[in-house]
Design goal:
Elements: H1 34-43, H2 45-58, E1 64-68, H3 74-82, E2 87-92, H4 95-107, E3 114-118, E4 132-138, H5 147-156, E5 158-174, H6 187-204, H7 217-223, E6 226-238, H8 244-261, H9 267-276, E7 293-304
Parallel strand pairs: 1-2, 1-4, 2-3, 4-5
Antiparallel strand pairs: 5-7, 6-7
Length: 305
């Protein structure tokens, strides 16, 4: 399981980063998404850096930091930079993503205090050897059918006084003005509505899916025995004109949404998306001067007694 870095709810629902995850159904192959996960996480680094700095103020000296649902390790390595004396453990269900995380850690010169563990979040983080002082879970919990039980499993893996930082929800990403001069205005709002329907189906089809808890994350943290100590939302604002890296991400993001949500789009919106993704069309995102990246992600923090 990987960070949804802007594409499934926002993985796009919030960005499952979903967006239909490149499929017309709700199965997600995170290993297949490796390039996109890296691309998004690297572009979102300023946001994650700000979030990590806030966590350092709350928990300045953890010995073990666990990244639950680490994906390719972009954020895991950022956490290692934020907490330079800590050991960092990246936990994910997909070995190809963990291999990418180990490669990144070696490239960053932190391999001596960086480990990986292949485990599914719904299984209680597998054979984690030591309790975590800080457990980070970024847009990964919503890919577990029984979120409350998975949260309780996180708590079991925390040391006394340990901190859980849960990144879920926020605001869907925006890349386009409301009126882009082609098609009907409000394209991204309609994509968001279709994405929400996809996300609900994805949640309902997860193994072990139970009656949905209200997504009141502070209340859920309290229900599993944590003391909710803070909530903060972090903004990523990359205004037009964007860098080539940001433009490439916008192309990837909209392509992923078009391919994953095509069955729910009407013919006019699909035609508009096709124009936006045609490099030979001057109205496409390859050439438009008005594209941007704007999103917000929310982190909820709880502490174990």
């Amino acid at each position: 399981m990987a960070h949804d870095h802007g594409n499934d709810q926002n993985r796009d629902h919030g960005q499952g980063q979903g967006q239909g995850q490149g499929h017309s159904h709700t199965h997600i192959d995170f290993a297949e998404m490796l390039p996109m996960l890296v691309q998004e996480a690297e572009l979102f680094t300023p946001l994650y850096t700000e979030a990590a700095s806030w966590l350092r103020e709350l928990r300045p000296d953890p010995e073990l930091v666990v990244d639950a649902g680490s994906g390719p390790g972009v954020i895991s390595c950022l956490l290692a930079d934020t907490f330079p004396t800590a050991r960092v453990m990246a936990v994910d269900g997909a070995e190809p993503l963990l291999a990418a995380a180990r490669t990144r850690a070696a490239r960053h010169g932190i391999a001596d205090r960086f480990g990986t563990l292949q485990a599914e979040l719904g299984d209680g983080l597998g054979d984690l050897e030591y309790p975590a002082d800080l457990l980070w879970a970024s847009r990964s919990l919503h890919h577990v059918g029984d979120q409350r039980t998975a949260l309780a499993g996180f708590v079991d893996r925390l040391a006394p006084g340990g901190t859980l930082a849960l990144l879920e929800g926020g605001l869907p990403p925006r890349h386009l003005p409301r009126d882009i001069g082609i098609g009907r205005p409000g394209l991204q709002a309609r994509l968001d509505a279709i994405q929400e329907e996809w996300f609900a189906r994805m949640r309902a089809e997860l193994p072990g899916a139970v009656v949905e808890d209200v997504e009141d994350w502070p209340a859920l943290l309290t229900a599993v025995g944590l003391r909710h100590t803070g909530t903060r939302t972090f903004l990523l604002d990359i205004p037009a004109p964007v860098s080539e890296e940001a433009r490439a991400f916008i192309v990837t993001s909209l392509t992923h949404r078009r391919d994953g949500l095509a069955e729910g789009l009407d013919a006019d919106d699909l035609a508009t998306l096709n124009r936006l993704l045609d490099p030979d069309d001057k109205a496409s995102v390859f050439h438009r001067p008005d594209v941007f990246v704007l999103t917000a992600l929310t982190v909820y923090v709880g502490v174990k007694a």
